[in-house]
């Protein structure tokens, strides 16, 4: 069982400072990586206004080459307080994963990947769909709060407990976006 770094999993009410914290961190990442960072996106629940979340800012950084990112990104990001977590490669392949903050509670999660990877699009369309559908975001909040209570400090159970909802919502989000693009 993978334990949550801060003890019990807590889903906090939405904090309007989360977008500000993202913006500040995006600036730091852009300084650290320069033009190698093709895009820096705010993802996860803290990127959806009104959605309760674990108070961790999730960032998605697009790079032209993951292989090159292994050589060019780890040291500059570590200089900004990020800890590279290579052990996560089995759970989230084809990306580099970093955490920032004391050894729990973590304040930031950073995902580095190529924008051509299917997970890039999935994360963005899921976020955008929740932003546009507050009723779906509320349903997601209910699931997250129930999982936080039942999972206690088992972060793997918390993550996998959301899988079906995320997969189904992402599929709906792709249809929603395709319909919007056709108009």
TrEMBL record:
One Pfam family, short name: GrpB
Signal sequence region: none
Source lineage: Bacteria, Pseudomonadati, Pseudomonadota, Alphaproteobacteria, Hyphomicrobiales
InterPro entries according to UniProt: GrpB/CoaE (IPR007344), NT_sf (IPR043519)
Protein's recorded name: GrpB family protein
């Amino acid at each position: 069982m993978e334990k949550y770094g801060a003890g019990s999993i807590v889903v906090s009410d939405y904090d309007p400072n989360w977008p500000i914290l993202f913006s500040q961190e995006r600036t730091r990442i852009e300084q650290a990586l320069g033009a190698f960072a093709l895009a820096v996106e705010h993802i996860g629940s803290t990127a959806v206004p009104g959605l309760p979340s674990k108070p961790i800012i999730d960032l998605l950084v697009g790079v032209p080459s993951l292989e090159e990112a292994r050589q060019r990104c780890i040291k500059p990001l570590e200089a900004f307080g990020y800890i590279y977590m290579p052990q996560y490669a089995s759970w989230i392949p084809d990306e580099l994963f970093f955490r920032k903050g004391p050894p729990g509670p973590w304040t930031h999660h950073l995902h580095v990947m190529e924008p051509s990877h299917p997970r890039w699009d999935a994360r963005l369309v899921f976020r955008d769909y929740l932003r546009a559908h507050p009723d779906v975001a509320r349903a997601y909040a209910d699931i997250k709060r129930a999982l936080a209570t039942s999972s206690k400090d088992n972060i793997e159970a918390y993550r996998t407990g959301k899988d079906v909802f995320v997969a189904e919502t992402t599929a709906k989000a792709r249809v929603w976006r395709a319909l919007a693009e056709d108009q």
